[in-house]
Amino acid sequence: MPLVRGHDRRRTPFREFVLKLHARCNLACDYCYMYEMADTAWRGVNSTMSDRVLDQVCRRIAEHVDGASRSVRVVLHGGEPMMVGVAALVSAADRVRAAVAPLTIVDVTIQTNGVLLDDHAIDRLCQAGIRIGVSLDGDRQANDRHRRYANGRSSYDAVDRALRSLSLRPDHFAGILGVVDLDNDPVSTFDNLIQYHPPAIDFLLPHGNWTSPPPRWSPPGETPYGDWLVAAFDRWYDAPVQETRVRFFEEVISLALGGASRLETIGISPVATVVVDVDGAYEQIDTLRSTYPGAVDTGMNVFAHSLDELLGHPAILDRQIGLEALSDDCLACPLHRICGGGYYPHRYRAETGFRNPSVYCADLGRLIRHVVPRVRADLAVLKGRLEDGTPDAGNDASPR
User: Fold this and answer.
1) What is the rounded CA–CA span in Å between residue 101 and residue 369?
2) Are 366 and 226 in contact (CB under 8 A)?
3) 295 near 284, Cβ under 8 Å?
4) Is the confidence at residue 286, as pLDDT, over 90?
5) pLDDT bucket at 5, cuts 50 / 70 / 90
6) Which end of the chain has fewer surrounding CB within 10 Å, N or C?
7) Which residue has the higher pLDDT, 315 or 245?
8) Under 8 Å CB-to-CB from 244, ≥6 apart: which residues?
9) Across all residues in the chain, what is the average pLDDT?
């Protein structure tokens, strides 16, 4: 349900390209937005991206970037991208880099469930300069509650082995992505994930919206997910040394201090990500599949349309206009420049589209109202020490 029809607004070029190399998965995670939620269009597409489509994707990225950006990010995704085989992944990375070189650096990452990530695969991907992100929600019990094979068998041992091996290659370890589950203790979850020495952890809220609320969602005023995030934040922030980055928490801090957001999940910075499906169709961010069938569709593809043309699509414009896309309730809230109305898919309501606060509005408020005073208090202490000339200023009171 687009809000803007004109093309006279300044557009932010795409800087992240998510390539769906495989449209199937070898796990059956019960919360998956791709296979278990509103949109079932994946059933009607080919399972893998053809060379013809990939070559055209490379051409479109090259003409869109055209030396104007020093770096872009390409994410090899799925389904489960490892199902195409390591050779195909390496080839895809090589072809994208060849298309945009030498003026633009291409940061290639793969986001995988990890079950096919053995030592041989890790070695090949590292040699090809591909950074590896792995999905894991916590310990064995946390993993097996949701992330099993279709026959019910646990996937934990394979992922655990992959992460232990990947932790020995820190330069190519992109981080761990975990979905928040209220049945998992937040501190224990953090402690379990940190054992793999990830450079970053991304905590994702379960996909839900006003029409299809997330698990154990509470009426406005109650904040179970906010409480979970607050406990995880304190565990991360209170560590005597920084053990890892938690990007969501870093973004809250940055926004509270007047910075800009780099994640779609929070803040009002314009979206700069495009998804290309296995058949070459341009799509909006694929988590929109959690809202209604066809929510990701643009009606445009790599053969008939350039990425510059895609920037003019009304749905893309809606997600680039920042404050103007927010609901009146959000604009009236003093926290809106930090939360940015919440993640776009989480704002959906069947009757009103996306011009609503996030279904996690109260939870985000709980986290922000906890983080901001803590950070500002630490900055005040640090400022006082600097003004007093204290020799160890910043050793134990500086925000991450």
Assistant:
1) 45
2) yes
3) yes
4) no
5) very low
6) N
7) 245
8) 175, 194, 197, 198, 199, 200, 201, 236
9) 90
CA 134, distance to chain mean position in Å, is 12
Q: What are phi and psi of 22, to 5 degrees?
A: -140, 135
Q: Six-digit token pair at 90?
A: 């390496």
Q: Residue 19 gets which letter from DSSP?
A: E
CATH number among 3.20.20.70, 3.40.50.740, 3.30.930.10, 1.10.10.60, domain 16-318: 3.20.20.70
Distance separating alpha carbons of residues 171 and 159, to the nearest angstrom: 19
**273-276 and 173-179 beta bridge pairing:** unpaired
**List of E strands, 89-170:** 105-112, 130-135
Residues listed for the chain: 400
pTM of the full predicted structure?
Answer: 0.90
Residue 355 banded pLDDT, cuts 50, 70, 90: very high
Beta strands in the chain (DSSP E): 16-20, 71-77, 105-112, 130-135, 173-179, 200-204, 245-246, 273-276, 281-283, 297-301
Task: Select from 210, 240, 205, 245 the least CA-distant residue to 226.
Answer: 205
**Does residue 36 surpass a pLDDT of 80?**
no
3-state helix, strand, coil in the chain (%, to 5): 40, 15, 45
**Domain extent listing, the chain:** 16-318
